[in-house]
Amino acid sequence: MASSLPTFPLALLLASAPVAAAPPRAASVPSAAPSAAVRAPAGVGYAQVRDYYQREEKPGRYGVLNLLDGRELSAWCTPGPDTLDVPVTVGFKDSVTLDEVRVFTGNGADEKSFQGTSRAREFSLESANGARRFSVADQRGLQTVQLNPPLSGARFTLWVLDQYPSQDPEAPVCVTDVVFVSQGKALNGPWLAPRLKPDARVAPLLGTWFAGYDGAPDRFLSFYFDGTFRYVAEPFEDAAGKRNVVGSYAVSGTHLTLELPKRGKVRLALRREAREGGGEQLRLDGTAPEGLEALREPFRSQP
């Protein structure tokens, strides 16, 4: 059965080659990311996707965090056969340089699960610094793809561009694992599994929120699945206004508690609402610590 997704010229299918033309509906990435001088512990911080298979019936069963846990028994699956509506955003707690990815395509739980759903065939991995396109074979198990040249960034978007279709034309497209590798070191894997359990209170917050000019944000508020957060402010014309704060957070009902180094805990009212023009808006109401008053300004889900 032919795939319903677009096909591309053979020259564009070379593994790890830089993308010559952007894939359809390319994801937005920050045009003004935190500078290299701002550092936080390296590691995967979050993965986001708009929707996934059986999200309402079985929350988390086929969720996007399954991509990071390095286990055959869990997989991420798209809501249906159209993959271009659900790009995956993966954020790291610091800028990283990826020179390799290891991909387990399909639902790898067993051979029946593998054949019963469609399997991702072609991918594009993008950051603010470029993109790499690659393909994998229709087989179970991890497949190693070299990224040449390597791709750097703190926030990446993974697109599934094509698939090996199952016999059911409405079947979801699945990927069991994507392991990100830098200088031979895997940045995610089975050791993360205990931290990746779905939490309905935290899930809507995970990711990076942006403030400042549309398309050129200068403030970044990131929430990670390990219970830590990072706030970075880099005003374009105010060097004295730069901030880099790392701490922990907790969500309780409609309130967010931030624990700041040497400042203790700050409790803020939490509001998420639809934003005119698309995406969501995040507001934190309450008394912000001195020097962090900008936390009360609205943040948005897109750069």
Can you put this structure into words, describing what you see?
Strands 1, 2, 3, 4, 5, 6, 7, 8 and 9 form a 9-stranded mixed beta sheet that branches. This protein has an 8-stranded antiparallel beta sheet with strand order 10-11-12-13-14-15-16-17, with no helix packed on it. The protein starts with 16 loop residues before the first strand and ends with a strand. It folds into 2 domains: 39-193, Galactose-binding domain-like (Jelly Rolls, Sandwich), CATH 2.60.120; 207-300, Beta Barrel (Lipocalin), CATH 2.40.128. 2% of the residues lie in helices and 44% in strands. The chain has one helix at 111-116; strands spanning 17-18, 44-48, 76-77, 88-105, 118-127, 130-135, 143-164, 173-182, 185-186, 207-213, 216-223, 228-233, 243-252, 255-260, 264-274, 280-285, 299-300. The chain contains 1 helix and 17 strands. With 303 residues, the chain is mainly β. The model is unreliable at 1-41 (pLDDT under 50).
Would you spell out the secondary-structure blueprint of this structure?
Blueprint: E1 17-18, E2 44-48, E3 76-77, E4 88-105, H1 111-116, E5 118-127, E6 130-135, E7 143-164, E8 173-182, E9 185-186, E10 207-213, E11 216-223, E12 228-233, E13 243-252, E14 255-260, E15 264-274, E16 280-285, E17 299-300
Parallel strand pairs: 5-8
Antiparallel strand pairs: 1-6, 2-4, 3-8, 4-7, 4-8, 5-6, 5-7, 8-9, 10-11, 11-12, 12-13, 13-14, 14-15, 15-16, 16-17
- What is the name of the CATH superfamily of the largest domain? Galactose-binding domain-like
Secondary structure: number of strands: 17
Characterize the quaternary organization of these chains: single chain
Largest beta-sheet details? 9 strands, mixed
Distance between the termini: 38 Å
Q: What do the pLDDT scores average to? A: 86
Structural class by secondary-structure content: mainly beta
Radius of gyration: 19 Å
Order of helices and strands: EEEEHEEEEEEEEEEEEE
The percent range for helix content is under 10%
Number of helices: 1
Identify the CATH architecture of the largest domain.
Sandwich
